Amino acid sequence: MNKTYGFCMLLFMLPFLLVGQQAEADDTAALIDSLSESREQSILAEYGFRDTNTLSQVAQKLEIKNIDRWKSALGLEPANKALNDMTLRRLEISPYRALLGKQTVEYGYNELSTVSEISASLSMPMKKLKAMLGNKDPLDKSWDNRSIQALNISPQRIKDIHDEFTQDALIYGASVTLVGMLVVFSALLLTSIVIRQLVHLNRAEQSTPVIKLGSEGKLKAAPKNLSRNVIVAAITALHIHQQEIEDKRRMVLTFRRTPTNQWRASAVLSMPNRELNSRR
C-alpha cells in the first residue's frame, strides 16, 4: 500500500518537476541572450558596427590586418572574396563572434577561453599564470575551467603578463643554470677532497719485514713473527735472482769479447819454418 502511494505521489509531482526544469532552462537561455545582447551593445558603442554591416566593413572597423586569418577563425573560406561583401546576418555571424575571431587572430585566444586553455596555448605553467593573475592560492583549481571574461580579465592583460613572464624566464633560466653548475662543481670538489682524505683515515702503520744475511749467505737476523717457510722462500728467491744476474753478465761478456788477430797471434807461436831457419 505504501509503495503504491509513493508511486502515485511521484507521478503527481513529475509534471511540476518538468515544468520547473523547463523554467530553469528558459531562465538560463534568457540570461545568456541578455548577456549577448549587452555585449553586442557595448561592441556597437566601442567599434560602431552591427550585424547589418558587411564583412569587409567589420574588418575595417576592427582594424584587422590579415582578413584571411580572421575569416578562417570565423569558420569561413579564406580565399572566397565574395564573402567580403556579405553582411554578418547573412553569414549567420554575430558581432560578438566577429570580435572573438579578432581576439583569436591577435592573441591566439579570446575572452571566452579558460585559464587552462590559455596556459596550454602560451606554453606557460598554470600555477605561474594564476599567481600572476592575482590568485593567492596557485593550487586552487577553481580558476582552471573559468573564462577570463568571467574573471573580469582582458586578453590584453594576459598578453602583458605573458610578455613579462617571457622576459623574466630568460633571466630565471640563466640564474637556475648558473646555480646548478655551481652546485655540481662544488659537490665534485668536495667529493674529491673527501676521497683524498680517506687514504689517511684508519691507516695502520706497517713495517716492512727485513731479513739480513751474512757474507757467506747464512741467515743473520729475521723478524720473530715471520714464518720459517717464508724466510726460506725469500732466501731462495734472492739466490735465484743473483744467479740470473750472474748468468746475464756472463752472456754479455761472451758477446762483447775483444776479437783477436790471428796474424799477430802467430808471431808468438812456435812455427816449424822458424826452427829450420834458426838451425841454418
Topology of this structure?
Blueprint: H1 2-47, H2 55-61, H3 67-73, H4 95-107, H5 115-122, H6 126-133, H7 155-198, E1 212-213, E2 219-221, H8 228-255, H9 262-265, H10 272-279
Antiparallel strand pairs: 1-2
Helix pairs in contact: 3-4
Descriptive overview:
The chain is mainly alpha-helical and 280 residues long. The protein has 10 helices and 2 strands. Among the domains are: 21-107, no CATH class; 213-256. A two-stranded antiparallel ribbon has the order 1-2. Strand 1 (212-213) and strand 2 form a beta hairpin. Helix 3 packs across helix 4. The radius of gyration is 53 Å and the shape is rod-shaped. The protein starts with a helix and ends with a helix.
Number of helices: 10
Helix content: 55-70%
> Taking strands numbered 1, 2, ... along the chain, how are they ordered across the largest sheet?
1-2
Rg on CA atoms, Å:
53 Å
Strand content: under 5%
Mean pLDDT, rounded to whole units? 76
Low-confidence stretches: 22-32
The total beta strand count reads: 2
Which overall shape is indicated by the principal axes computed on the Cα atoms? Answer: rod-shaped
**Helices and strands: which structural class?**
mainly alpha
Order of helices and strands: HHHHHHHEEHHH
